[in-house]
Design a protein that fits this description.
The chain has 478 residues and is mainly beta. It has helices at 2-19, 154-159, 171-174, 196-199, 206-211, 464-468, and strands at 41-42, 48-50, 53-65, 68-75, 83-87, 91-98, 106-109, 130-136, 142-148, 164-169, 184-192, 217-220, 223-224, 226-232, 234-241, 248-252, 258-263, 266-274, 277-279, 284-290, 299-304, 322-333, 355-362, 371-372, 384-386, 392-398, 404-408, 414-419, 435-438, 443-448, 455-461, 472-477. The strands form six sheets. Strands 13-12-11-15-20-17-18 form a seven-stranded mixed β-sheet. It has a six-stranded mixed β-sheet with strand order 1-14-22-21-16-19, with no helix packed on it. A hairpin with a 2-residue loop joins strand 17 (258-263) and strand 18 (266-274). Bound molecules: CU-O-CU linkage and copper (II) ion (2 copies).
């Protein structure tokens, strides 16, 4: 039984860690801040709102650690932004209000919505204005998220605090009896400066505009160096990489595997145990960890493992080890891992492609703009016309020494190959994706079909500085 194996491995990992001197309290390599800034704070559970409400973007003040606050930009006064829970078949209806000193617009990342509700930068509203969204939820259950998408301003607005979860449920997922309530942990991952004065201040340097902003301290749900207490039993972790540029390679400090059940577009065809997970900006991952078999007092950490970026090692602080979440087993018991069926979800493979397109992502040092196929984004230029309902093969080529998490609006796609670099499709990239991490030297092929809505959508790199500096194109579905 899957759950049985899990207990054994988690315990074995604990013994190994204890032999090595226990949990290392070093939290963020390269963090220039003092020891006081290494203290952990409880991971916040984001506030929740249902569909049919108002989202007001406004300046405010938010706690970033126990006893510390920072000036922020917030939806409805909370950091992170409130979690929206909805269900397939409902209508998502929101009035966006803008009390920021800046234009803004919300994009529902991963959600199938008509173009006027997609948060294209041309829809941005001025300070003082409002925007009405009203869209049917035709989506599979999954971990989606929302964030601003105004032209040249996405990086700054997400940085200042505007980003939240959008959780969709459906009957297929209900039937699995997955951990819920206090056993469902949502975590928006971001890397920031440690100090309250600078954590939420947006001041990218020239190097940041090239590589994207990479900072030394992990935050979860707006909280610096988060910690979590778990009872004996199974927990569901749903993670969003809401960083500017950071690629995480997520694993347990104990080395125990993670049971991945979902990614960007909801449930995987089958659960898969993996030792670690690459997560580019914009991507989501949904996995289970069972703590039934470890003793109260046992600790581990969800860690981003060190890795090399071909061609750039040492040049940018990408690939450093970071302890994202400290986890402590406390007293109490909750249900153990549910028995998962061999097939979690039906994912029909997209058929043969009628045509091909290639998108080449290039960031050249010393150049101000980032480009796709040699072009920087222009608001009113349509870069590709794609026929509605037809399957195409899209090839994403990374022609630079920086990672590019490639994101598509308007549909979900299927990754069919990766050559160069990591050299294959990863098991947790099965199913439906809206973002594909394309590391330097890699080429990723995806099958793409728009069958929800016609109109104008976007393809872009989700490195927020790349996106803001031109690495985006207009796709018109006709
Ligand atoms: Cu998450 Cu176009 O963005
Ligand atoms: Cu999106
Ligand atoms: Cu990029």
């Amino acid at each position: 039984m899957l759950s049985r194996r899990r207990f054994v491995r988690l315990t074995a990992g604990a013994a190994a860690a204890a032999a090595g001197g226990g949990f290392p309290f070093i939290t963020s390599c390269g963090d220039p801040s003092g020891p006081a800034d290494r203290v952990r704070s409880p991971l916040l559970r984001p506030a929740e709102i249902g569909a049919g409400r108002t989202l007001l973007a406004a300046p405010g003040v938010a706690p970033i650690a126990e006893g510390e606050s920072a000036a922020a930009w917030l939806f409805n006064g909370s950091l992170p932004s409130p979690t929206i829970r909805t269900r397939r078949g409902e209508v998502l209806a929101f009035d966006l209000g803008n009390d920021l000193p800046d234009p803004t617009i919300i994009h529902w990342h991963g959600l199938l919505v008509p173009p006027e509700a997609d948060g294209h930068p041309r829809s941005a509203i001025a300070a003082g204005a409002t925007y009405r969204y009203e869209v049917p939820v035709i989506q599979r259950a999954g971990t989606y998220w929302y964030h601003p998408h105004a032209h040249h301003r996405t990086g700054e607005q997400i940085h200042r605090g505007l980003a939240g979860f959008l959780i969709v449920s459906d009957a297929e997922e209900d039937a699995l009896g997955l951990p819920a309530g206090a056993q469902e942990i949502l975590m928006l991952l971001q890397d920031r400066d440690a100090g309250a004065a600078s954590a939420l201040t947006y001041a990218p340097a020239a190097m940041d505009l090239h590589a994207g902003m990479l900072r030394g301290t992990p935050f979860g749900n707006g909280v610096r160096l988060p910690a979590l207490e778990v009872a004996g039993g199974c927990y569901r972790f749903r993670l969003v990489n809401g960083s500017h540029a950071r690629v995480y390679r997520i694993g347990l400090e104990s080395g125990a595997p993670l049971t991945v059940i979902g990614n960007d577009g909801g449930l995987l065809p089958a659960a898969v145990d993996v030792p670690n997970i690459w997560l580019g900006v914009g991507e989501r991952i949904d996995f289970l960890i069972d703590f039934t078999d470890v003793e109260p007092g046992w600790r581990t950490a969800l860690r981003s493992l060190a890795f090399d970026v071909p061609g750039t090692s040492g040049k940018f602080p990408q690939g450093i080890e970071l302890d994202l979440l400290e986890i402590t087993r406390v007293d109490g018991a909750v249900p153990a891992m549910p028995a998962l069926p061999p097939a979690l979800s039906a994912v029909a493979p997209l058929g043969a492609a009628a045509s091909d397109r290639t998108f080449e992502f290039r960031s050249s040092p010393g150049e101000e703009m980032h480009r796709i196929n040699g072009l920087a984004f222009a608001m009113d230029r349509v870069d590709a016309m794609v026929p509605f309902g037809e399957t195409e093969r899209w090839v994403f080529v990374n022609d630079s020494t920086l990672p590019h998490p490639v994101h598509l609006h308007g549909t979900q796609f299927q990754i069919v190959s990766r050559t160069g670099g990591r050299g294959g499709v990863l098991p947790y990239e099965a199913g439906w994706k809206d973002t594909a991490l394309v590391m330097p030297e890699e080429t990723v092929e995806a099958l793409v079909r728009f069958d929800a809505y016609r109109g104008l959508f976007l393809l872009h790199c989700h490195n927020l500085q790349h996106e803001d500096m031109g690495m985006m194109m207009n796709i018109e579905v006709v």
